Amino acid sequence: MADTYPFAFAPRHRLLLRALGVRPDNSRVVVGDGFFSARFGRWELTTPLSNLASADVSGPYKAVKAIGVRLSLRDSGLTFGSALRGVCVEFRKPVRAFGPRAHEALTVTVADPEGLAEHLASVITRG
């Protein structure tokens, strides 16, 4: 069985995200039997649950640094951003999804960041 976490869409950023092809109907995080997957419009990152190292609620972020698909200049983090709060998920081994290198972490701005972080923490603790 899989649990789905929809992205939060800040009203002021909906038009920009729609222009990128990112909408509520094609953006979600799924935690399934053995896998973690985040889809954000046409972009997707999937990895085994065993590859998750941590999951922490973070934010608030500045819109200029968080809305859209963002690569961190400081590390190899990736953001799928539609709002100003989310969950930073760190990986044991970097995962390839977007850009020239694999990502050590992914930030997702889901509607229930506390719920997703708790769910992932329980999976990480059991694993």
Give a description of the structure.
This protein has 127 residues and is an alpha+beta fold. The chain has one domain: PH-domain like (Roll), CATH 2.30.29. Helices cover 19% and strands 42% of the residues. It is built from 3 helices and 9 strands, in the order βαββββαββββα. It has helices spanning 14-19, 63-66, 113-126, and strands at residues 3-6, 27-32, 35-40, 43-48, 52-58, 68-71, 78-81, 86-95, 103-108. Strands 5-8-9-7-6 form a 5-stranded mixed beta sheet. Strands 1-2-3-4 form a 4-stranded antiparallel beta sheet, with no helix packed on it. A hairpin with a 2-residue loop joins strand 2 and strand 3 (35-40). It is globular and about 40 Å long. The mean pLDDT is 94.
Low-pLDDT parts are none
> Kindly, what is the distance between the CA atoms of the first and last residues, rounded to a whole number of angstroms?
17 Å
Morphology: globular
Helix content: 10-25%
| Largest sheet, spatial ordering of strands | 5-8-9-7-6
CATH class descriptor:
Mainly Beta
Number of strands: 9
Number of helical regions: 3
Query: SSE string, helix = H, strand = E?
Result: EHEEEEHEEEEH
Radius of gyration: 13 Å
- Our count of domains comes out at 1
> How big a fraction of the residues is strand?
35-45%
- Rounded mean pLDDT is 94
CATH fold naming: PH-domain like
Q: Could you say which structural class the secondary elements and strand pairing correspond to? A: alpha+beta
The CATH architecture designation is Roll
* Major sheet details: 5 strands, mixed
